[in-house]
Amino acid sequence: MHAENEKNSKIIEFAALGLMVPIITFGIYVIAHGHLTPGGGFQGGAIMATAFALLFVSLGKKAIESIKGEVLVALECIALIGFIGIAFLGMGNTFFFNFLANSGVLFGEKVPFGPNSGIFSSAGVIPLMNFFVGLEVCCGLTLIFFLIFKGAD
Amino acid sequence: MIIESLSLMLIVLSAALAVKVKDLLISTAFLAVMSLLLALQYYLLQAPDVAITEAAVGACLSTAIFVLAIKHTSRVEK
Q1: Residue A57: inside a domain, yes or no?
Q2: What is the distance in angstroms between the Cα of A40 and the nearest Cα belonging to chain B?
Q3: What is chain A's alpha carbon radius of gyration, rounded to the nearest angstrom?
Q4: Domain boundaries in chain B?
Q5: Is B40 helix (H, G, I), strand (E, B) or coil?
Q6: Does ipTM surpass 0.90 in this model?
Q7: Single pTM value for the model
Q8: pLDDT in tens, A62-98
Q9: Most exposed of A23, A134, A136, A144 (fewest Cβ within 10 Å)?
């Protein structure tokens, strides 16, 4: 049915590649501000995965050949190990203990009392865990799409 | 109030059209519209977290899966 018009139009390819940049930027914004605004790791990762879904739908075979499944699996494993590793680092007190909060090192700024507009480098290990969850969700959903598109051909 | 009832009516309308239409690609587009209006409804009900997830997963990711399934089967419902 689609054998004769396998060649993609240049306009669709260019528009998809151009749209990927703002979509991924917005996903990273949602992940980075997960502890201040609505959204977080899962939401930002799903937004980032939509960029890859757009790439697969618009470019087809060319996108499948340019992405390797092993890389996605490796990134997913790194993200999961990072998440559990940070959870185990707080083992001096309890599992998932927020040992970076109010320490002044990484995301460890003290939050002043009273209403404020939100301090970006606060909340301790929560932004780091949001980052790992976002990476894991993005790679997992992209891997699902990759395998579905690959198996269909 | 007007926006809420209007979007609720449009959700029901687009869901009914998605079932009724014979061209499956247009039916998928109606499903995406329904998901987007549902995200607006979640936002009006003070759940922006759920709205972001619904807009990303419901309106984009599931639509992509449907489009791929239609591409490899027939486009018109018999």
Answers
A1: yes
A2: 8
A3: 19
A4: 2-72
A5: helix
A6: no
A7: 0.83
A8: 878 888 888 989 999 999 999 999 888 888 888 888 8
A9: A144
